[in-house]
Amino acid sequence: MDVFLLQVLNGLDKGSAYAMIALGLTLIFGTLGVVNFAHGALFMLGAFCSVALNKLLTLEKIALSETEMTAWGTPLEIRTPYAEAWFGDFGAWVIDWSVPLSILIAIPFMLLVGIVMERGLIRHFYKRPHAEQILVTFGLAIVLQEIIKAWFGANPIPQPAPEALTGMMDFGAAIGMDAGNVVYPAWRLVYFLFAAAVIGAVFAFLQFTTFGMVVRAGMADRETVGLLGINIDKRFTLTFGIAAVVAGLAGVMYSPILSPNYHLGMDFLVLSFVVVVVGGMGSLPGAVAAGMLLGILQSFASMNEVKAIFPGIDQIIIYLVAVVILLARPRGLLGRKGVMES
């Protein structure tokens, strides 16, 4: 039972990332009909928002010690981050919590990036074949990752989680099991809870607001909504921006789990598209359910006992499950009739 619960937790934290990226992909496809292969790059940009803020906050003030010397007889350099030198303990706290605080930068930045992408490029491909949409968005993804590579370098850049959340949490004891049986990294649990909150907020926004109601109506019948005099194009532009924000937030909070690098988006993109297809093209609940399901299956397939019997199964399990599900149900788990069937 302990091993089972640990693998479920492992699957949920990775599945949360899949679900958040797939949710944005599905939102864009459901509203705009665009297959956006640049969505993984938005996940990467979110991760580098945390990198950029951390680098800014840790810019150092260098002073020479008057009493301490190096082994070569020169004054010892004392390096103090400007934030800490100017603001003392508060500055040190801001540096420690730089990853969560970078959310405040990521939200407006990713919203702006999403709107610029949609207005500047994506809108010109609404009525073009999906193959052309894939090519142009994939090209955009390559451009974005090369910009990040040129600016931040090719090597992964580790991001520290807040010190208070870097330890292990006794999850088993928290749910009434024996203490010490199910111990799990605290930040991964935080990531799962954060993802659940973001996904819940997106569904609540679409379900209970007038804006969300119009977007859902536009997903079902764009022409009819337009005939009612509603500027659906403006709302869909904002929806693209919201999808970009969701992907960016997923990247921000995932940066302490997997050190950001310029090809981070590509690593998650293909798997996220598999999640979208398995869940059902255009189905938001399907994207979330498939993300969690495939994350958990991948976690169990990564166990040494399983790999000893089926070597390499952890690398292909998601694709095998996708094949089985699509053979049994071509629309995906919760796919709507007529979507991607023409």
UniProtKB/TrEMBL annotation:
<protein>
    <submittedName>
        <fullName>Branched-chain amino acid ABC transporter permease</fullName>
    </submittedName>
</protein>
<keyword id="KW-0029">Amino-acid transport</keyword>
<feature type="transmembrane region" description="Helical">
    <location>
        <begin position="15"/>
        <end position="35"/>
    </location>
</feature>
<keyword id="KW-1133">Transmembrane helix</keyword>
<keyword id="KW-1003">Cell membrane</keyword>
<keyword id="KW-0813">Transport</keyword>
<feature type="transmembrane region" description="Helical">
    <location>
        <begin position="236"/>
        <end position="257"/>
    </location>
</feature>
<feature type="transmembrane region" description="Helical">
    <location>
        <begin position="189"/>
        <end position="215"/>
    </location>
</feature>
<dbReference type="GO" id="GO:0022857">
    <property type="term" value="F:transmembrane transporter activity"/>
</dbReference>
<dbReference type="GO" id="GO:0005886">
    <property type="term" value="C:plasma membrane"/>
</dbReference>
<feature type="transmembrane region" description="Helical">
    <location>
        <begin position="97"/>
        <end position="122"/>
    </location>
</feature>
<dbReference type="Pfam" id="PF02653">
    <property type="entry name" value="BPD_transp_2"/>
</dbReference>
<feature type="transmembrane region" description="Helical">
    <location>
        <begin position="269"/>
        <end position="296"/>
    </location>
</feature>
<comment type="similarity">
    <text>Belongs to the binding-protein-dependent transport system permease family. LivHM subfamily.</text>
</comment>
<keyword id="KW-0812">Transmembrane</keyword>
<feature type="transmembrane region" description="Helical">
    <location>
        <begin position="308"/>
        <end position="328"/>
    </location>
</feature>
<dbReference type="GO" id="GO:0006865">
    <property type="term" value="P:amino acid transport"/>
</dbReference>
<dbReference type="InterPro" id="IPR052157">
    <property type="entry name" value="BCAA_transport_permease"/>
</dbReference>
<keyword id="KW-0472">Membrane</keyword>
<dbReference type="InterPro" id="IPR001851">
    <property type="entry name" value="ABC_transp_permease"/>
</dbReference>
